[in-house]
Amino acid sequence: MEQTGILIDPAAFQAYTELRKIAAEYNMEDELEVPQLVVVGETSAGKSMLIQNFIRFPCTFGAVDVATRCPVAYRLVHKPNLERGKIRVVQPKNINNPAELSGHLKVVMEQIQREERTGFTSKLYQVELESADYTDFEIVDVPGLIAGSGDKAARDTVEDLVEVYVRNPRFSIVLLKEASQLKVNAYGALRIRELCTLPKGRVTTFPPRHDYEEHMITIQTKFDTIMKTKNGTAVNGLIQQSCEDFGKTYFVNMIFDGYSMEDNLYKTNVEYIANLPQLEKERVDEWINNLNAAATQSSGNFQKFNSDYRELIGIDVVRQQIQQLWLKVCN
């Protein structure tokens, strides 16, 4: 498998690997704190899709009728003796090939949906992956927060289990929302704030985490909704408002032309993930060029695209920002 590596600043990664060697020498590997991150957001915000684009192989299930039903921890383990570009599944133990993982998780989620009263459980399901290209990292994918007037019992169950992670100071937070969603309608962002800062936790004894935003980034998915806008003035205003509303925020569109992971072979999906950064760059740059051309030709005084915003857009930008959370924990 090619291009599965997670690229971390080489100096920082070297320092971390040296620390791991020392810990191993003194049998203290279990005491070496592994950076932990939780990915949160409303249902269908793209959490699972982001995780597999970060891990760089299709490890999550993609069925439209099956949701994440429990917290899933993807524990990445650095194994320098493995061949570069190869991934070994350690857990679940009955999975021998990474290509089998997404199908296995789908079965697990369907079983939880059938057997649990609310359709969800707080019990953690662990996936452990080894690679020479990984840094030690744990990424927890939790069920999507349920907005609206749906099943209250299910909504409460999900919010209880999400609190366990977002209120825990050991976890950095990646919040996903759709790019077209205004702050006033961003139920997921509002609930995360409340779960972190309420004086008393719903199910945990953690104190309020008032500084949670210092340990969180917001990823705005489905950026293609913004790319339908042909007016540079409107685009600049939308991005500026998003930055003001959500602080450290970045934009990504992980699917183009209606591509479906579920409808394609594993190998094809691996190639899609590997090629996504270049595809996205080409599409975004073409869109920006069209905005700038319209600004030059328009009698409506359209602005050109603010070039400062370009560095906020793209799956590689998002990966780098998640990696910065890794560095922040390790330093």
TrEMBL record:
GO cellular component, one term: cytoplasm
Xref: Gene3D superfamilies: P-loop containing nucleotide triphosphate hydrolases (3.40.50.300)
Domain Dynamin N-terminal: 37-181
InterPro entries: Dynamin (IPR022812), Dynamin_N (IPR045063), P-loop_NTPase (IPR027417)
GO MF, one example: GTPase activity
PANTHER family, per the entry: DYNAMIN, DYNAMIN RELATED PROTEIN 1, ISOFORM A
Name the UniProt record assigns to this protein: Dynamin N-terminal domain-containing protein
Organism encoding this protein: Adineta steineri
